[in-house]
Amino acid sequence: MNTVMLTGVAGFIGSHVGEMLLERGWRIRGVDALTDTYDPAAKLRNLALLDHSPLFEFVHADLATADLRPLLDGVDAVIHLAAEPGVSKSWGTVFPTYVNRNVLSTQRLLEAVAERPVDRFVYASSSSVYGPNSGTMHESSVLAPLSPYGVSKLAGECLVGAYAQERQLSSVSLRFFSVYGPRQRPDMAIHRFVEALLDGRPAEIYGQQVQLRDFTYVEDVAAAVVGSLTASVAPGTVLNIAYGDPVAIPDVLRMVEAEIGGRLDVAQRPHRAGDTGRTHGDSSAAREVLGWVPTVDLATGLARQVAWHRALRQRPVETVAAAGPVAADVRRQVL
User: Fold this and answer.
1) Angstrom distance (rounded) from CA 44 to CA 41
2) Residue among 123, 130, 149, 180 flagged as catalytic
3) pLDDT in tens, 31-82
4) FRET pair for 99, CA 20 to 30 Å: which of 110, 119, 153, 257?
């Protein structure tokens, strides 16, 4: 049985990847720093299904400071999802956090892997590495990030490429496009829209320009990540992971209204630095190399995400302990 080290396991995407790995028979060493980017209790809740499997081991560790060598003992592959997220928050004095969590942590992990090689290293990159583009974004499109966050993700991607070139690391970097679905982070657009309508308050929309996003469902993204572990790829491969059908934000608001029922008022806010007008990813390379095809359309994915939001509201007294033994181990650091 193969073992994978999964960083960022308690996050939105990481918890879905973990569940899919278990379904396919992988043993997981899940690593997470449980940072306060958003409520750590929510991250622990994400681990509930993983925590009850004998194939899952949780390690509470910060990749920027921990001794990473023992974490790699017995590991056959690494999936590196851990990162500090957020385009609009990455400006100003907070940028050292992005350097620490997105660049330094990635370099330290790569250096540890170079000393203790693995069969495959999968890195989570972002569509934020691209510059403004009115057409379709291909892997060969101009890379010109509009935010410090995008710069930090591109730096991590370049580090992975350097280790692939000079240290013969078998790696795949996946550029995710507008991931959504159950467990989505509170700062992300669809999460904010759904909560606003359920609360009966306006949804905040930024900028006067109508933005379009290539929304990609989280389980489709997880399938691409897991498929990258065993696909035959050249070292340093970079792939877009996108549904391939950009949708205007006003249309997303109408879909949320239709799913929940009711009228969603809009509070118009100024443009946020780093927000791009349009994303549209071409994933033909992922289809060819990974055999990956997204299967969940936006209407179906939205329905699943709304159901998740509603389910959370039906059990508002949930405690950290709901995540099981993992929560008990780290309760003092979270509360």
Assistant:
1) 5
2) 149
3) 999 999 999 999 999 999 899 999 999 999 999 999 999 999 999 999 999 9
4) 119
